[in-house]
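Tokens in:
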């Protein structure tokens, strides 16, 4: 069990970092010390995941987007880490440092998950304020986070299944403390990830599906608002969109199955998310395209987001004219010439001469969405069902799925007429570039499909750090 001193320090750190988000979990008088320890341990893992070495920058708008050539490298100084990364110079000392931090921070997060899983497994239901429901929730979220950490290490340090050579690239660590490690090939790692997610889904279902489905509605899930009688009395259970909730885990399973080339299983998971509802009201949808200016990240469509309160100030330098590294892009190259697409409007992108940058992370502190780093969203689920349909030669369903997202973004007249799987995949890549800009998924799509035409000398497998301490 973590010490009382560390608990207090952890708790104060969280209060300083987030005065109005789900991390502000001020304990009631009824929460016992052990329960607070476990809550803070869980919150600490989310903070690790949102650090700059991971989704706070490198796995969202930063390093991984540079690798996917989402930005124009000519607006980065040739000596900068990001420019060298855009040329896939993985042997460069600066690039090596970023890659090494992905590995070490990933396994550090996994160690924290394993410690928490061990602690919660040893605790009884009466050790928790909300008894079995809370025990299951913390246990399930920790398992899901462990799976996410492993999956992102797999996506970066191992080949895709399209290029799989059967070699062992990484360990799957599920014990604390670590005594020894065994390296596994892709197939075995993916099976372990799948098993963790299935177990996690079953555990959190008690809260999110059986007892409190109303907490998954957008206003409660993202902003802890709604009808008072339906809101959780304890803020620890609010903001389920900032946590590995049941549908976020289901969506992550869909993403994992796509990587695994289990397309029908991915489709089934994606459909469960799309169709999730309470009474006749769906949990997830798209904000009206006319409202994107006020809700740039489309909170209605977010399944899981991380919170980083310093996001705007950390992202802004990459948009400044005088910066050494600018995340600028050719708007026509990404958004084509659509006059309807609100993602290309002045509400979403800003001109810097003849080029543009995304305003997605330039939301003023205190405004809705300002701290959100979207990790999983509804549009990806539509892309998954579209790809499954295309792979079964159902191009009408594939077109309808892509058109659903396009229509939500203002492209009411957009239609697709696919004639082959390759034709569909070409269009899918274009849509992901538009929809998920700054969210770190483009490079992984290229890698999953083994598409190398977007960049000369592209490298899809990171060099394993020389110091592999985990």
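Residues out:
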């Amino acid at each position: 069990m973590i010490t009382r001193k560390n608990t207090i320090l952890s708790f104060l750190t969280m209060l300083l970092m987030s005065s109005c988000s789900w991390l502000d979990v001020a304990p009631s008088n009824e929460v016992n010390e052990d329960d607070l320890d476990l809550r803070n341990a869980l919150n600490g893992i989310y903070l690790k995941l949102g650090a700059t070495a991971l989704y706070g920058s490198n796995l969202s708008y930063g390093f991984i987007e540079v690798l996917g050539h989402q930005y124009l490298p000519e607006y980065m100084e040739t000596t900068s880490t990001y420019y060298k990364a855009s040329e896939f110079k993985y042997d460069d000392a600066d690039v090596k440092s970023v890659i090494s931090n992905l590995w070490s921070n990933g396994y550090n997060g996994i160690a924290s998950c394993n410690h928490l899983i061990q602690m919660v497994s040893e605790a009884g239901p009466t050790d928790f304020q909300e008894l079995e429901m809370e025990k299951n929730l913390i246990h399930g979220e920790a398992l899901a986070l462990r799976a996410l950490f492993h999956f992102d290490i797999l996506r970066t340090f191992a080949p895709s299944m399209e290029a799989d050579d059967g070699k062992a690239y990484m360990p799957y660590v599920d014990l604390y403390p670590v005594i020894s490690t065994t390296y596994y090939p892709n197939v075995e790692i993916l099976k372990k990830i799948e098993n963790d997610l299935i177990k996690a889904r079953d555990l959190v279902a008690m809260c999110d599906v059986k007892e409190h489905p109303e907490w998954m509605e957008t206003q409660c899930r993202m902003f802890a608002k709604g009808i008072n009688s339906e809101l959780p009395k304890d803020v620890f259970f609010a903001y389920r969109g900032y946590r590995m909730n049941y549908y976020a885990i289901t969506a992550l399973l869909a993403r994992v199955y796509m990587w695994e080339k289990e397309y029908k299983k991915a489709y089934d998971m994606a459909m469960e998310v799309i169709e999730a509802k309470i009474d006749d009201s769906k949990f997830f949808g798209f904000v009206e395209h006319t409202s994107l200016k006020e809700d740039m990240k489309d909170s209605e469509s977010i399944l899981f987001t991380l919170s980083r309160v310093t996001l705007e100030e950390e992202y802004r330098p990459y948009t400044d004219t005088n910066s050494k590294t600018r995340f600028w892009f050719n708007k026509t190259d990404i958004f084509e010439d659509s006059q309807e697409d609100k993602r290309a409007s002045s509400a979403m992108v800003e001109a810097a001469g003849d080029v543009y940058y995304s305003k997605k992370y330039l939301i003023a502190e205190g405004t809705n969405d300002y701290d959100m780093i979207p990790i999983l969203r509804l549009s990806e689920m539509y892309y998954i069902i579209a790809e499954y349909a295309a792979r079964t030669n159902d191009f009408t369903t594939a077109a309808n799925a892509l058109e659903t997202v396009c229509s939500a973004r203002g492209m009411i007249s957009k239609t697709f007429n696919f004639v082959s799987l390759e034709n569909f995949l070409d269009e899918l890549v274009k849509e992901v570039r538009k929809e998920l800009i700054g969210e770190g998924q483009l490079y992984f799509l290229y890698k999953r499909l083994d598409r190398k035409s977007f960049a000369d000398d592209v490298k899809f497998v990171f060099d394993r750090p020389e110091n592999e301490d985990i």
